[in-house]
Amino acid sequence: MSRNILAAQLKNNKRVLLAALLVLAPTLNVAYAGTTELYNQSCVTCHGAAVLGAPKTGDKAAWNARMKKGMPTLVNNVKNGYKNMPAKGLCSNCTDADLANLIELMAK
Q: Which residues have a Cβ under 8 Å from the Cβ of 43 and sit 6 or more positions away?
């Protein structure tokens, strides 16, 4: 293949990728907004102020130690309750994916 053909294909691939991002961007924002809403409804009371031993949202040191256990362990702890946290952390309708997203949000 010539250089011109490769350059044209690369340029076209960039356009396709950009178009895909523009289409998917609103969906990504909705997913994040949904997680934030769940956090505000179910998690902020304890994790917002580090109540009853809950790791504070955004406390990287506290969350890094927990994240080392792996997401499956953390999700399982939330589902079944852990120490002072009730089962599902007050989010009875949350799926495993929701719980994982909430953990990721709080660990940032």
A: 57, 89, 90, 91, 102, 106
Residue 48 CA to residue 57 CA, distance in Å, equals: 6
Low-confidence ranges of the chain (pLDDT < 70): 1-3, 5-33
Q: What is the pLDDT of residue 30?
A: 38
CATH homologous superfamily of 33-107 = Cytochrome c-like domain (1.10.760.10)
- Tell me the torsion sign for CA atoms 41, 85, 73, 68: positive
Spell out the domain ranges in the chain: 33-107
pTM of the model: 0.69
CB 57 within 8 A of CB 44: yes
CB atoms within 10 A of CB 37: 10
- pLDDT score of 77: 97
* Rounded-to-integer distance, Cα 83 and Cα 107, Å: 18
